[in-house]
Amino acid sequence: MSLSLRTVPARQGALWMRDGFRLFSKHPLAFSLMFVVFMSAAVIGSAVPLLGGAVVLGAVPLLGLGFMIASESALNNGPIHPGHFIAPFRGDARRRRAQLVLCAAFGVSTVGVMLLAHWVDDGAFGELQKLMAEQAPAAEIDALLADPRFFNGLLVRFGLAGLLSIPFWHAPALVHWGGQGPAQALFSSTLAVWRNKGAFVVYLLSWLGIILLFGTFAALAFGLLGMRQMAGLVALPAGLIFSTVFYVSLLFTFTDSFGGTGMRPPPP
User: Fold this and answer.
1) Closest C-alpha to 30, from 77, 65, 62
2) DSSP 88
3) Contact 42/59 with Cβ under 8 angstroms?
4) Fewer CB in a 10 Å sphere around the end CB: N or C, the chain?
């Protein structure tokens, strides 16, 4: 399929999030089940010694692509199920190889980022996770958070992770629908994100805004009711919904950046 690189106005970023919520609202259980199945498989896979964690990291690109395929199916009144995660491997051998190369490259790059961040913060991030799991005194946690190495490690971890997401944002979809090779797909994805950087900034700010708004509203509401402990209980289902909607919205970032997936959805 022939894809054409497009440039959209910055306000389109907010519409990507809106369209994600709209599509999710029509199939909330099916999309949520997909996310739960993938995360459950990731937890089980991570428990496998040696290569389990690396395989899970390498499978992350398939999470976004699987949701793109499922979202396209939903727009065309088709089924939504976890089988969409393995749909990219049902095509021709060349595209399967390209997807595997992308998965391996993402897994290796992510491990590299994690190792570099661990070296920068001298293991402070892992120590924080350990202290929180053990419910350590607040003084110990505050002391760790005040360590400059911890802050520097966060900058490296999230900064490089953000940069890594740019070439991989559209790459699996470009292989799946556009038939591009791994290198071309990574380059095309980077170029698309750069050309539509205004829309992506608005997209990310929109997500940050709605999450902060929800958190503030939940804290105030349960605080007024004298049930502050309940605020933590709604965080898990809210996180599930927001995460699922985010992945549902990925299809709209792709179709606006490259002109579609080759299938024309019915009008709203």
Assistant:
1) 77
2) G
3) yes
4) C
Rounded to the nearest angstrom, the gap between the alpha carbon of residue 54 and the centroid of all alpha carbons in its chain is 17
- The first and second tokens of residue 80, run together, are 């939504």
* Tokens 């419910």, located at residue: 135
Token output for 59: 């499978």
Q: How far apart are CA 196 and CA 9, in angstroms?
A: 8
11: left (phi > 0), else alpha (psi -120 to 50), else beta?
A: alpha
260: left (phi over 0), alpha (psi -120 to 50) or beta: left
What 8-state DSSP symbol labels residue 215? H
Residue type, 221: A
pTM, entire model: 0.87
Whether the CB-CB separation of 43 and 224 falls below 8 Å is answered with no
* Tokens of residue 195, six digits: 């050309």
Helices 60-75 and 12-26, interaxial angle, to 10°? 70
List the one residue out of 2, 11, 12 whose CA is nearest residue 256.
12
